[in-house]
Amino acid sequence: MARIDVEDVAHRYDADAAWAVDALTHTFRDGSASAILGPSGCGKTTWLSILSGLLRPTRGRLHIDGREVTALPPRQRKIAQVFQFPVVYDAMTVFENLAFPLRNGGVAKEELKTRVEATAELLGLTASLDRRASGLPADEQQIVSLGRGLVRSDTAAVLLDEPLTVIDPLRRWEIRQKLRRVHQQTNTTLVYVTHDQTEALTFADEVVVMDRGRVMQVGTPRELFEYPQHTFVGHFIGSPGMNFLPCRLAGHELVVEGHRVPIDRAAFGDSGEAELELGIRPEFLELTSDRAEGSVPARIRSVTALGDHHLVTVACGERPLQVRVPEGAPIPTQRGFLRFPPEWIRLYHDGRLLE
Amino acid sequence: MTLCLEGVSRGGVAGVDLELENGSLTVLLGPTGAGKTSLLRLLAGLDKPAAGRVRQDGVDVHRVSPRKRQVGFVHQRFVNYPAKTVYENIAAPLRQTRGLPTSEIDAKVRATAELLRIDGLLGRRPSELSGGQQQRTALARALVREGGLLLLDEPLVNLDYKLREELGAELRAIFARRSATLVFATSDPSEALALGGRTLVLDGGRVLQAGPALDVYRRPDSVRVGELTSVPPMNRLAGRLAAGMLLLGPGSQASRPSHLEALPDGAYHFGVRPHQLRLVPGASGSLKLTAAVELAELSGSETFLHVRPSEAGQTVLVVHQAGTRPRSIGENVDVFIDPRQLHAFDEAGGLVAASEL
User: Fold this and answer.
1) Any idea what the CATH number is for the domain that residue A184 is in?
2) Phi, psi values for residue B225, rounded to 5°
3) What residues of chain A, 276 to 315, have a C-beta less than 8 Å from chain B?
4) A193: Cα separation from own chain's centroid
5) Which of A14, A49, A275, B89 has the most crowded Cβ, counting Cβ within 10 A?
6) How many domains does chain A have?
7) pTM, whole model, 2 decimals?
8) Secondary structure class of A216 (helix, strand, coil)
9) Which residue of B has its CA nearest to A225?
10) What is the pLDDT of residues B172-205, one digit of tens each?
11) What is the pLDDT of residues A194-219, one digit of tens each?
């Protein structure tokens, strides 16, 4: 398995076009499970094509285990790819499908059998080895596609491009578990590209969040959730995303919609910025029916029951905010008060986190 | 309009009885292959039932062509007229109605565009729109005609996650302001809950359960419905009721909770949602299972822990906790279960006693 270093990579499809990706510098560590996360058009697929060798970047360099591969074609990089839709040979059995990349590589018969059987075992395909791939449901075909990526012992990394698009939510859950297990057992370097935060955050140890061709933040799921470096990340990560409210600093407090909210002043240094935004997650806002010191009045606009929690939309001044209330906790009717726990308040200036 | 299916079968649909009241919202919830699209096509009149009857406002519509049935259909893939502006895309169904004054068409197009928040894009063509805006345009075209039947086949499934979340949250309010009879198919349990309305759980071409979304979630008629109505699915525990006790194994027992008092002694399946399992002792009288961690999924805001109980006969459980709680593989944890939160199912998987919590 391998480490991949990306050095100041940029790409545009035409000389006069805008950069599809720009200033990409990142190391995918050997044996890591990473995700590239962002909305449609953010450049994540361009990045993936640059890693696999389908696209040669306009600028910058790429190394696999210290060896420069920027100009190498895909087959010389030993990178396997799993696509949105299963790529299997319908007429072949699952065994033959898994064996295919090995036959291409001229692997001896005995070793081939051992590798195929070990891969099938890992992915729970042993019972299906003699079945024709065309007879399998879409989710199992996708597992076979993954197996084709994992079967070669010299694979440097496996790239997964939105691999669960065609799979139901319930089965996605199962396949994600399978991927995690495979990663824990094989330590293959995996790079998973998706627009779906749940998939990225539960799959990866390290997530690269992109927007408009640039990396906005790299972090563990927890860092992205608790300390979004940018309002875009705050909004994009979390379901629903972070709430934002205009505010200003006044001594040891914030002024939010004309109300004073205490903060941990030391945490924000001496920023001296006037125009600020307060960011707080729906999970951390507290909604009560009684006024308390530092709370802000709010009108209840709607309550949606979502099974294990309620999502409450409140208006603070004219601003809508969302509050996530656990099942069983009381929800005030019509009017309530919002408390902003100081440890969960984040402040942003010009879209960037103040630290 | 009112639509009524009586014992309808064909292809992926087996013996479905269903009544859609005028102006109601029905959500078809089920995995791929459950029969959602087949059922929508039967409702639209695109397919004729092999058995059973479809009545519209009391009249058998067997011979009525779909064009005359006032039916709108929104597909998974956004279908718009590429050469027409957003305005003309939305106006298209109204232009088919002869004699509708231009001023009325204009008022309806603008009001519907505003509802879907695309009123600023009326002069653009579909190719100049984002995926979310294209699907909003397709939805607006389907919603511009008042009344009738509107069928939506997983309309958000091809959207980016964030767009899906945004539009999904608005749809409930948008639907509430329309007079159409709506049927919305989805494979996502949280979408069914967010839309509200009446949920119909489909599996293998059959209706397993029907009722208000939250009722179906809280009171699943069967283990299968419990599994299909949340992600991750309801956990299943094997256990026994004996005299005054509830037992999950030799080392795990508690007093029988009041909602299970009337049940005869014997073996049962018990169902409990992942967020109801705890790793710290909760209410007194909790059941305790010792289990080994197999997998920890961390999303930054939530932790999903997959654990295998040491008691024989139990399968892997998923514990859903708020916050980030890393655990190592193989580590032993104690899982606490409030017996009052357990649904009881018979050995065939049918509900025999629901938890009131």
Assistant:
1) 3.40.50.300
2) -65, -40
3) 281, 283, 302, 304-308
4) 8
5) B89
6) 2
7) 0.88
8) strand
9) B300
10) 888 888 888 999 999 999 999 999 999 999 999 9
11) 999 988 998 899 999 999 999 999 99
